[in-house]
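Support reply, case 0932

Customer input (verbatim):
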Amino acid sequence: MIERIIGTRTSNLALWQTRHIMALLEETWPDVACRTEPFVTKGDKTLDKPLPQIGGKGLFTQELELALLDGRIHLAVHSLKDLPVEDSPGLTLGAIVGRADVRDVLIAANGRTLATLPKGAIVGTSSLRRQSQLRRQRPDLDVRSIRGNVETRIRKVHDGQYDATVLAAAGVIRLGLEEHIAEWLPLETMLPAPGQGALAIQCRADDAETLRLLAAIHQPEVAAAVTAERAFLHALGGGCATPVAAYGVWQDGRLHLIGYVGAVNGMTMVRVHNSGEDPQTLGRALAEEAIAEGAAEILAYV
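Our regenerated output:
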């Protein structure tokens, strides 16, 4: 048997994602046996500050990356949107799989929608991307930071601490919590984070055996779409905590990419669209279009 140790954060969503990858590997390779190693990251421990204020790259990934480099684990499963756009030295993405619905959803008391929330309603999000797009649609809302895992954020709404919160549909669905969704936010209203809904499996760049195993579950079309999204973010000089959104989708053999850069107050924004065949080239070209329309000036004030 080939044993592979998978590092994972301890939230229910992280454990679901890790078990999903374990099952894929063990189904694909009958001689592979996986076990998990739990980690608590800086982002998990620091719950008293909004994420953008904590700063730094890899808030939810650094401890896992150190364990990979130390050889304590063979691979780590991440929500791709949480990973910095640049690979850490010595590490690589061995596979990208399983893109779920990329949309965001509104969790709201009494089933209210974004349009029917009362003026001054308190909406929780720590994402500058979501803040920008929320304020663009509803400048009268009181958008405040919210922290905690998916279940905690839903509970805070039902406890009355917030009137609503915005979450990635992928996490809500994977945890079987669909009954709490008040509204699916259309892409025209809320464009997702680059890589949203996709899972990334990270490993050491020199671990040929693990790379061989992961190659069998890698999904090239998903990888191409999210690579274009992340190339757009990278070319803008952004990271996870910037008001940048992107979504790539294949249509008629071409990759179509939509990008968004918005002021956190929602007052100004740039929305661009293009298509191409090479993901990196497309992402960089779309970022250049966004910069030509004023994206750099918007990001300078974040």
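We compared this against your earlier run and they match. Two observations from our side: The chain has three domains: 2-98+198-218, 104-184, 229-300. Residues 12-28 form the longest helix (17 residues). Please reopen the case if you see a mismatch on your end.
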